[in-house]
From TrEMBL:
It comes from the Bacteria. The lineage of its organism: Bacteria, Pseudomonadati, Pseudomonadota, Gammaproteobacteria, Enterobacterales. One of its GO terms (molecular function) is endonuclease activity. This is Putative phage terminase, large subunit. Residues 95-375 form the Terminase large subunit-like endonuclease domain. Residues 3-80 form the Terminase large subunit-like ATPase domain. It holds the Pfam family TerL_nuclease. PANTHER family: PROTEIN YMFN (PTHR41287:SF1), PTHR41287.
Amino acid sequence: MNIHQERTGSKFEPVASDANNLDGLNIHCGIVDELHAHKTRDVWEVLETATGARLQSLIFAITTAGFNREGICYEQRDYAIKVLKNFDNPDPLSIKDDSYFALIYTLDEGDDPFDEANWPKANPGLGICKRWDDMRRLAKKAKEQVAARVGFFTKHLNIWVQGEKAWMDMSRWEKCRDTWDDSTTASWSMWLGVDLSNKIDISAAVKVWLAPNGDVYVRSRFWIPEGRLEACTKQQAELYRKWNQAGYLEFTDGDVIDHAVIKEETIEWARGESLNEFAYDPWSATQFALSVAAEGIPIVEVPQTVKNLSEAMKEVEAKIYAGRFHHDGNPVMTWMMSNVTVKPDKNENIFPNKATPENKIDGPVAMFIAMSRLLVNGGGEVDFLSTIDPDEDLLLL
């Protein structure tokens, strides 16, 4: 589909984002939207080459800031700044390029991004095509929620940021520490999330209750093969032993985790609860799932995807910031929460990541798995499609 004029053979049309399908172009003008989202410089280079036969060609990009400081967008930004700074520099060695025009609306270095007086620098149309009240709403959210800060800085202030940021404000998490008797939550709807290790790492199980007033309560348990401590750093092994002695991290015999042990202990842990669903990540867990289903327990697969976990993470964060989240203070879970990093995509979806392999996040992932199911059928009956019949094939949701 395009806009065209038959008499001159001219046309205006969208083109593929795959540079391999763009060879042979002969263009007067190329428009690139959101250049920061381009993972490679290939499309930009193809468009530049495609203007070679034109006397007055033009390529221009419209973009906000982003994360990738190694990409084509930041490269163009860096070049643009050099051109602007050297516009009237008499030094013959300075960069001068009369064919290159750049206009960058952003904050100055050292500006407070939450000071309203600075916002017009990045938003010349503020109050006209962008509302002040909307900017204030976004700023308030970004100030309170770490995950929202990246989007506010890049999309609304044109500030470049690092790729991944710590997700949780741990001072907020600490404020949610609470104690309660198991009899209090026994009648509340509960979802159990499990993230099994690949036999040699930490496995996690997390209970998530929905209280009658809408608050969320969370308890967690963790297991690791004791033999694996020899492969850990001295500091990590000491920390694991400390948690084990305090009852927060359970050791299993040998060098590999026994999924049968976790299954038995988890089922016993959930006994007497109003269990809605036993939710788990299906990675390397088929036999585990079948054995749980054989016990007559409603079990559902929740693959670790953005679709399944993004809204769950946002809901957990919202509950924490609203003071409607309660956790049991397990230090293993607290450590893992501090390890969670996020890098929102262009649609502001988030997904739990970790900066290094040593920064475990199994507990938070198990919690997000359970929360994702709470959001699907919170407080209601279990969707029959989400259960597993041990005599049937597994159903992937």
